[in-house]
């Protein structure tokens, strides 16, 4: 486990989390570069790297390409004997070879302005109105999200006014080659600069990375419920099941066989369950039940 954490300079909440991690972990600046008119700064420590970027995190489809370019340049320098001979491991652009997932630090917005600590995978079940590509889901890392939510829940006493809940899969980026997880604090400017929330979020994330635990034996995709699916959050907290992509009730009309198979295939851990919010399937209930019953090799669970 060596994730790349990503924070946009345009997001005050993301930068608060990034600054906290840099200070807490004694991170050192390793790479500063311009890429397609983007200013990129990378910090590293033994457990993860942190990238600061300009622009929207929802449209950061370019990160794979940038890392690949850094790797190509490094290999070229090694072949040509122009490297500096450093043997310090993950320093400079050599961190690229270790990264196995992307964790985006982000603010969360909602009309309710309710204090919320949340996480979610990314993807678009239909059109792409907030980054990414239409009808494309990002890769998911179910064990990572479960670890994070369990650690967050264990620290809930430090932020008693905050709801702790996952969100259904939504927005970009969608085309990255490694799994994506968004870690968010919301839902207004007050919470984005609440250092108690920042501290709890960052320490929960650090614990999830340093003491990472796999839950790959029981992974499911989830269908139904609201955008903040309480039943699926409780499932993560109270059972040994981890979740890949989650489609809320308002997106069920876009779930056909192709999309359902994409939900299953885009998990880096094998999906063994399709989990239905039985009372949260709305008018699509009969169609969804027939659809999931046709998928071989998975067990359907009703909650």
Question: How is this fold's topology laid out?
Answer:
Elements lengths: L3 E5 L3 H14 L2 E8 L2 E7 L4 E5 L9 H18 L21 E8 L6 E5 L2 E2 L11 E2 L4 H13 L8 E4 L13 E8 L1 H4 L2 H16 L8 E5 L6 H9 L3 E6 L9 H9 L7 E4 L8 H9 L5 E4 L1
Parallel strand pairs: 1-4, 1-5, 5-10, 6-9, 11-12, 11-13, 13-14
Antiparallel strand pairs: 2-3, 3-4, 6-10, 7-8
Q: If you had to describe this structure to a student in words, what would you say it looks like?
A:
This protein has 303 residues and is α/β, with parallel strands linked by helices. It has one domain (4-77, 91-302): AF0625-like (Aminopeptidase). Helix content is 30%, strand content 24%. It contains eight helices and 14 strands. The strands form three sheets. It has an eight-stranded mixed beta sheet. A four-stranded parallel beta sheet has the order 12-11-13-14. It has a two-stranded antiparallel sheet with strand order 7-8. Helix 8 (285-293) links the parallel strand 13 and strand 14. Helix 3 (142-154) crosses helix 5 (195-210). The two termini are 31 Å apart.
């Amino acid at each position: 486990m060596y994730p790349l954490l990503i924070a946009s300079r345009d997001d005050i909440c993301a930068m608060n989390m990034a600054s906290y991690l840099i200070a807490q972990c004694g991170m050192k600046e390793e790479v500063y570069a311009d890429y397609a008119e983007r200013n990129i700064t990378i910090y590293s420590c033994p457990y993860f790297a942190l990238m600061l970027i300009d622009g929207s995190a929802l449209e950061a489809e370019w990160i794979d390409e940038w890392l690949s370019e850094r790797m190509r340049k490094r290999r070229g320098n090694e072949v040509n004997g122009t490297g500096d001979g450093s043997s310090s491991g993950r320093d400079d652009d050599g961190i690229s070879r270790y990264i196995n997932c992307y964790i985006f630090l982000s603010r969360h917005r909602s009309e309710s302005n309710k204090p919320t600590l949340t996480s979610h995978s990314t993807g678009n079940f239909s059109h792409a109105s907030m980054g990414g590509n239409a009808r494309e889901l990002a890769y998911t890392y179910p064990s990572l999200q479960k670890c994070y939510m369990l650690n967050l829940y264990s620290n809930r006493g430090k932020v008693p006014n905050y709801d702790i809940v996952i969100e259904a899969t939504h927005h970009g980026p969608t085309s990255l080659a490694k799994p994506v997880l968004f870690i968010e604090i919301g839902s207004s400017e007050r919470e984005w600069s609440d250092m108690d929330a920042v501290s709890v979020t960052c320490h929960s994330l650090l614990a999830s990375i340093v003491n990472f635990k796999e839950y790959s034996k029981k992974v499911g995709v989830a269908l139904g419920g609201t955008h903040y699916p309480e039943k699926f959050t409780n499932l993560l907290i109270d059972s040994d099941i981890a979740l890949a992509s989650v489609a809320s009730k308002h997106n069920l009309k876009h779930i056909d066989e192709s999309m359902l198979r994409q939900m299953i295939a885009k998990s880096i851990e094998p999906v063994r369950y399709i989990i239905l919010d039985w009372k949260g399937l709305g008018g699509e209930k009969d169609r969804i039940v027939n659809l999931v019953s046709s998928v071989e090799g998975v067990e359907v669970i009703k909650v």
